[in-house]
Design goal:
alpha/beta; Rossmann fold; 7-stranded mixed β-sheet; 4 helices; 28% strand; globular; binds adenosine-5'-diphosphate; binds magnesium ion
Length: 145
């Protein structure tokens, strides 16, 4: 999403609990049109999976317990208002492995949510979200549209 001058918008939030992060994501997802790519970047435990759960909930998924980091499976697919492709690049090291994930099968077919998105070395038109862990349960969450 760009503003009138064609510049990307950026918003920064601070959350103080898992619930707040979940609700922030849920609210964001309500405006999704069905083809968004969401790139999540941040350390282990920063809240990427919590955010993915919030997105799924915002898209009407009732059982958000099935939303977990697909660290071993690499990709989980949930069916909600749109198909949600939840990808975790944690275990992938090589750029070729990432390229081989079959992006063309998912892009434009639903919502794509990627954890450890900093490993992607190619350009994707996406909403980019970065998480920084603060004191205790505080998380700084920056959203670039
Ligand atoms: P990641 O997927 O980035 O590795 P997770 O979402 O799996 O991280 O885990 C985040 C952890 O941090 C959870 O245990 C959650 O309860 C905890 N937590 C504490 N405060 C927050 C917060 N403000 N937002 C999100 N998670 C938080
Ligand atoms: Mg995770």
């Amino acid at each position: 999403m760009k503003d009138k001058r064609g510049k990307r918008k950026e918003k920064e939030y601070t959350t103080d609990s898992e619930r707040e992060t979940f609700l922030l994501a849920k609210k964001l997802a309500r405006d999704f049109k069905g083809k968004e790519v969401i790139l999540l970047t941040g350390d282990l435990g920063a809240g990427k999976t919590v955010f993915a759960k919030g997105i799924a909930s915002g898209l009407g998924l009732k059982d958000t317990h099935q939303v977990c980091s697909p660290s071993f499976t690499v990709i989980n697919i949930y069916q909600a208002k749109y198909s949600i492709y939840h990808i975790d690049l944690y275990r992938l090291e090589k750029n070729t492995e990432i390229l081989d994930l079959g992006w063309e099968d998912y892009l434009g077919k639903g919502i794509i949510v990627v954890e450890w998105a900093e490993k992607i070395k190619f350009e994707l038109d996406a909403i980019k979200i970065t998480f920084v862990i603060g004191e205790g349960d505080q998380r700084k969450i920056k959203i670039r549209f």
